[in-house]
Amino acid sequence: MKRRNFMQISALGAGTALFAGTSAFAATKSKTLESPSDRLTSRMGDVVPISLEERKARIAKAQRLMEEKGFRAIILDSGTSMNYFTGMTWGQSERPMVVVIPAKGDVSYICPRFEQDRLEERITIGTKVYPWEEDESPYEQIKKAVLDSGATSGKIGIEERVRFFIADGLRQVATNFELVSGDPIVIPCRIIKSPAEIALMQQATNITIEAMTLGFAALKEGVSPSAFSSAVAQAHQKMGGRHAFALANFAEASAYPHGTSKPQILKKGDVVLVDCGCTIEGYNSDISRTIVFGAEPTPRQLDIWNLEKEAQAAGFKAAQIGATLGDVDAASRKVITDAGFGPDYKLPGLPHRTGHGIGMDGHEWGNAVRGNKQILEPGMCFSIEPNISIVGEFGVRHEDCVYMTATGPVWFSKPSPSISQPFEL
Questions:
Q1: Four-way CATH pick for 6-34+192-411: 3.40.50.2000, 1.10.260.40, 3.90.230.10, 3.40.50.10240
Q2: Do the first three CATH levels of 6-34+192-411 and 52-190 match, i.e. the same topology?
Q3: How far apart are CA 304 and CA 396, in angstroms?
Q4: Three-state SS for 26?
């Protein structure tokens, strides 16, 4: 049956229980625990870090891809991809410390000579270090590392986070080589998550669900968004997660996907939109929920909440092996535009993509956005969050992340059951 225009339909039938400042289960907890966060303990007992063997397998995959695509090496600056392949973390400065992964041979490191001892303490993959003195060129050392791998010309891939001055310095000295984007090597490695990576993301998600529950319990009439944010941050840390973010926006501010700088004070009947995440061993969670504080939702609030839930479910249904990430966006967006919103990115409606990739970065490749022809494969992880923004009124977003299996998507966090219950009991 053809769906009627949203402005012509009544409530979509979800439960109408009061959300009196907390979720039902958070309220129950707060009755039995005077300070719920005081009872939290570490959730890190079962966490298994990424193994050295897995990192070596990642490098081997990158080298296979380089051979297939005619690359001689890839260059990694300090940051996520360096950590992904080598386990190395290093602060960025004006002094380059980079990793060279050659198509053949061992990984090598280029660093300031006075940092060599500190670097060697951290190296677990490869042994070659090419130090440079303060009055020497680090770019000559990068070129030497590539030449020592047996390459004399061809393509060198520059990972996307390599800073311009490093790439430009290498370009000036490595004149026999062609510097190109390293995306064809790095993205196929990082976009497909292993079971170990998915397990870490699941643990991060579990912790964030608990933390958000305590955040909702902290909502009281007259508080600012910081009451929620502080409670979530404290809970993340007590459970062993590295707190990433905890945003809360009330009433009209909830219509802006990333909030507003204007002061906000919570009132009964306000829509409350929250967005939270933490990391475990470098792997991210990301969850958004929308509730109505302290009063029964209005028919308008309930209608929009349920429309958003329907749009999220449509995106999940479209996320099948062999489909594209663009198909996920199209399915969610169609539900919203069929209801009379939009079209496209126009407001009121869905002003941004339906989802983003997630892994070691909170936002990475794998965006559910119009025109993305990336075929869905097992191991891909991304959010499904078709936000509905009605400027001047409120916004609703349900955000949960999925990982792809051979039989389709699996939720890291199951969608919100109702406007009065952010999480399953």
A1: 3.90.230.10
A2: no
A3: 7
A4: helix
User: Structure pTM?
Assistant: 0.91
CATH: 3.30.540.10, 3.30.565.10, 3.30.70.2190, 3.40.350.10. Which one for 52-190?
3.40.350.10
Dig out the tokens for 33 from the structure: 């625990």
Give the separation between CA 364 and CA 358, rounded to whole angstroms. Answer: 5
The pLDDT value recorded for residue 6 is: 38
Report which of 166, 179, 103 is spatially closest to residue 137, judged by C-alpha positions.
166
CB atoms inside a 10 Å sphere around CB 334: 18
Instruction: Give the length of the chain.
Output: 425
What number of other Cβ atoms are within 10 A of residue 215's Cβ? 29
Which candidate, 159, 103, 101, places its Cα nearest to that of 126?
Answer: 101
**Domain map (residue ranges) of the chain:** 6-34+192-411, 52-190
CA torsion through residues 111, 113, 118, 123, sign = positive
Q: Which of 50, 363, 389, 417 is nearest to 209 (CA)?
A: 417
- Residues whose CB is less than 8 angstroms from the CB of residue 113 and which lie 6 or more positions away in sequence, other chains included: 131, 132, 133
- Nearest CA to 293 out of 399, 207, 422, 391 is that of 422
How many other CB atoms are there within 10 angstroms of residue 46's CB atom?
Answer: 7
- Do 363 and 354 contact (CB within 8 A), yes or no? no
pLDDT along the chain (425 residues), means of 10: 36 35 42 66 96 98 98 98 97 97 98 98 96 98 98 98 98 98 98 98 98 98 98 98 98 94 96 98 98 98 98 98 98 98 97 98 98 98 98 98 98 97 92
